Amino acid sequence: MAGKKAVDRQDAAAAIIEDWARERPELDTSPLEVLARLHRSFLRYHTELAAAIERHGLAVADFDVLTALRRAGAPYRLTAGQLADSGLISSAGVTLRLDRLEKDGFLVRERDAGDRRVVYSRLTDAGLAKVDEVFAEHLDNERRMLAGLSPAERRQLARLLSKLERSIVASADGEAEAGAGA
Questions:
Q1: Given its phi and psi angles, is residue 105 left (phi above 0), alpha (psi -120 to 50 degrees) or beta?
Q2: What is the pTM of this model?
């Protein structure tokens, strides 16, 4: 480590890129300029998110269930399958989360009047109040995290991240298609 310059804690990805450029100068490390920073940003974001939500006695997956039910609109109910399809929690984790949230009084399970096989999870008044409180704080927290960006920069970044997501999905779909043809 002697002779190595101090790493900028705000941009550790730059140090990683410099290290690879020194060790493997023949490699194009430009993807790291985006994806390493995105990954490090996500890890910090997730740590902040989890801490804020846990202060309310919830896990992130609990919060995801509550927000999915809230976004569904009145009467704030969905089936376990619909919750899993929302993409926020795995189908394996749905029942566990529903059990916990029901025990905490944030939701109730109700059978469909027309088809008794269908079971809905519905927010209770306490669940609605909790999700509204926590989500408002969540947005304040996210605004604070984005304070270093102007509104125009936020819009530009949102457009670029949407494009990045489509590119990543397309690359994964391409690999899946290539694997299917092999």
A1: left
A2: 0.79
